[in-house]
Amino acid sequence: MLEAREISWIKDHKAILHNIDFHLFPGECVGLIGPNGSGKSSLLKILAFLETPTSGSLYFQGQSVPRNVTLSIRRRIAIVFQEPLLLNTRVFENVAIGLKIRSLPKGEIRDRVDFWLEQFGVGHLSKQLARSLSGGEAQRVSLARAFALEPDVLFLDEPFSALDAPTKEGLRNDLGQVFKSTKTTTVLVSHDFKDISHLTNRALILLNGQVMAEGSPSELLKEPQKEEVERFLAHFSS
Ligand SMILES: Nc1ncnc2c1ncn2[C@@H]1O[C@H](COP(=O)(O)OP(=O)(O)OP(=O)(O)O)[C@@H](O)[C@H]1O
Ligand SMILES: [Mg+2]
User: Fold this and answer.
1) Got the DSSP string for 65-122?
2) For residues 84 and 125, what is the distance between their CA atoms, to the nearest angstrom?
3) Does some domain include residue 164?
4) Residue 138 to residue 123: CA distance in whole angstroms
5) Is the shortest distance between the CB of 184 and ligand 1 below 6 Å?
6) Residue 3: which residues within 8 A CB-CB, separation 6 or more?
7) Where does the record place the ABC transporter domain (predicted)?
8) Is the confidence at residue 238, as pLDDT, over 70?
């Protein structure tokens, strides 16, 4: 579905990512985990075509991705960031906007928006102004907006990190249910191993812009592969 080969990214004379190989098969959720500044968001932005790598190649659905990514490729992915980026309109409009841009029929837009708001437990907020939502509600709306696009690949960059613990746990469970039923192909960035072990089949551990380990969450914990990885994972083993 998506593959990156030997990706490096140098920005302002700083090496941010070094020689990264990555692949994503249809239906899997792959995690990117690492400490602050390890390059998780940078890699996610490159994989989601928001930044261009200095060297290396990207392949999307078997095709080499050109440097100037076409709109038709961009429209097949969706991204959710840590801070929900909502427009100052009603919740319904926020979720509908991407579908309007894609010229879907009005009836289908209504059905899809209603369905996805319900899936994330915020159907009752449809008419509320997005600005007046709580942080947890806003992030649920952002996720509904991304899923409503039915993207081929979904990118989630720390979607829970602005939420308090119980809110986070509720949303993580709901997202897990949605993954189970939709099998949406996803890249999930988190610095919390609990998110990774709940939601992903496989994860890559990034340290200093390099992939230091890769495997299923349980394999990573059992066999950390390198001393630096063991040190990083030790934070989560209590
Ligand atoms: N556009 C940019 N220009 C210059 N440096 C950048 C740019 N984007 C990221 N960096 C640098 O790259 C490094 C990795 O940043 P990145 O945001 O990818 O880390 P992260 O793992 O997502 O961290 P966090 O957990 O804090 O979100 C940091 O040192 C950051 O300052
Ligand atoms: Mg980040």
Assistant:
1) PPSS--HHHHTTEEEE-SS----SSBHHHHHHHHHHHTT--HHHHHHHHHHHHHHTT-
2) 16
3) no
4) 12
5) no
6) 22, 23, 24, 58, 59
7) 2-233
8) no
Q: Is the pLDDT of residue 74 over 80?
A: yes
How many domains does the chain contain in total? 1
- CA of residue 142 to ligand 2 center, whole Å: 17
| Average pLDDT of span 114-130 | 96
165, 118 in Cβ contact below 8 A?
no
Mean pLDDT of the chain: 94
CA 117 to CA 140: how far, in whole Å? Answer: 8
* pLDDT tens digit sequence for 184-229: 999 999 999 999 999 999 999 999 999 999 999 999 988 877 888 8
Q: Which ligand is nearest to the CA of 42?
A: 1
> Are 193 and 172 in contact, with CB atoms under 8 Å apart?
no
40 in a structural domain: no
Enclosing domain of residue 103:
84-150
> Using CA atoms, how far apart are residues 162 and 177, in angstroms rounded to an integer?
21
Cβ-based neighbours of 60, under 8 Å, separated by 6 or more: 1, 2, 73, 76, 153
Name the closest ligand to CA 33. 1
Rounded distance from Cα 30 to ligand 2 centre (Å): 16
Angle between helices 135-148 and 106-119 (to 10 degrees): 130
Q: What's the gap in Å between 21 CA and the centre of ligand 1?
A: 18
Q: Are strands 29-33 and 186-190 parallel, antiparallel or unpaired?
A: parallel
